[in-house]
């Protein structure tokens, strides 16, 4: 059940708390973020931004979607926010397939060093 004041959206499922329902939807979003349907993916990203004003959305998930859209700089902005917030999802950044597009960038290596993952 959603807390009072929250409205149900496509990424918020009754009875699911935290990221459990969002993980499944993130997988769908990452596939939708293929470059050939970039416009659709940007619309989904905008909707997700609206939902994030009502419930917590990990900055790491937002970064992964931007990486899949080839918006690398925007993705790193979200990862900087995740680092500043102490987001625990950063621990998994090396294994998230959505970060593939950013792995060759120097900020990615710097982030892994800051996190002690190299």
Which labels suit this protein?
118 residues, mainly alpha, 5 helices, 53% helix, globular, disordered N terminus
Q: Bin the strand percentage.
A: under 5%
Task: Report the mean per-residue pLDDT as an integer.
Answer: 75
Tally the structural domains.
1
Structural class: mainly alpha
Show unreliable segments: 1-20
The largest sheet is: none
How many extended strands? 0
**Which overall shape is indicated by the principal axes computed on the Cα atoms?**
globular
What Rg do the Cα atoms give?
A: 14 Å
Helical segment tally? 5
Terminal CA distance: 41 Å
- Listing every helix as H and every strand as E from the N terminus to the C terminus, the arrangement reads HHHHH
* Helix content class: 40-55%
Structure description:
Mean pLDDT is 75; it is low at 1-20. The protein has one domain. With 118 residues, the protein is mainly alpha-helical. The N and C termini lie far apart (41 Å). The protein has helices at residues 20-32, 38-52, 59-68, 72-85, 106-115. The longest helix has 15 residues, at 38-52. The protein has five helices and no strands.
């Amino acid at each position: 059940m959603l807390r009072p004041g929250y409205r149900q959206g496509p990424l918020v499922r009754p009875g699911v708390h935290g990221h459990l329902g969002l993980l499944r939807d993130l997988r769908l979003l990452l596939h939708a973020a293929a470059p050939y349907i970039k416009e659709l993916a940007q619309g989904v990203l905008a909707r997700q931004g609206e939902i994030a004003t009502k419930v917590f959305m990990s900055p790491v998930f937002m970064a992964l979607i931007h990486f899949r859209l080839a918006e690398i700089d925007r993705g790193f902005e979200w990862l900087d926010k995740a680092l500043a917030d102490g987001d625990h999802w950063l621990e998994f950044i090396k294994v998230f397939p959505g970060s593939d597009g950013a792995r060759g960038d120097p900020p990615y290596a710097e982030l892994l060093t800051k996190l002690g993952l190299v």
